[in-house]
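Many introductory courses stop at the sequence. We go one step further.
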Amino acid sequence: MLAVVALNMGGPDSPAAVQPFLRNLFADPDIIQLRWARPLQPILAHFIARRRAPFSRAAYAQIGGRSPIREESTAQVQAVVAAMAASGVVAKPYLAMSYWHPFPAETAAAMKADGITRALLLPLYPHRSRTTSGSAFRTIESALKRKTIATARIEGYAAAPGYIEALCARLTEAAGKLPEQERATAPVLFSAHGLPEAYIRRGDPYLDDVRATVAAVTARLGLASRAQLAFQSRVGRRRWLGPTTEEALDALADAGHRAVIVVPVSFTGEHLETLQEIDILYRDGAAARGITSFARARAVGCHPAFIAELAGLLVTTARDRGWL
């Protein structure tokens, strides 16, 4: 029996879950790459989580006290499986989260109980990175191997046509919310989750993948110099990819722009980073600097082109493995 397992980071489902979620996140050796100091990671994770928890709980309180990521991801994997069924391929949907329930071990146990023998792994991360899809593959493959369930991966899909089509549609939709005279000229700021520069120097493909996505959308919509790339959600003191989204918005305001379209490019669903960081913090900051028209593109979510693209990739992968 075939399964599709959607992979995502997870998120706290209550205020009480915030600190243990953060502890799990920072305990991941692929997230904080301590290298020779790795034995100290559990202690460091506990310290960071305890210190950051009050601020994170306050941020989640602004969007209802919890993350919507489980519901968002569940809707996506169910839509993908339905699209596969429409083409004659039957599979059962599952969700495995890296840092909160359902954890990979929980998902693997449920799959074994359901009689699953083969699993297609679908990262809900468009861009390859050791910190996201790499970590998720490592944990779910280990859990499924212990249950003797065979696996096949979908890697990144940074410039896949359906993903690009969905991003373009969301961007165009957002542009329609601006004053008519601003729609064709407003800067388009692609905001991706940040990453330490050291990770890129060690060969992480994330930056190249993000740039490929931005280039594809820019070419398709003819954005030319209107398109800019920035990075959000920095943690810690080390040097991260830049400019930050706040810095980019400040620069646009300084240049006299009064309208902007912000596109969350590395998030396929709505997260704290879109609903609170962009919609509240960055919007308010931009308004204070004189950007009076701020349009944010929705995440691709269950856009039909995106879902169809993922379904097609999964079917092709299953056929390549001789499973169909």
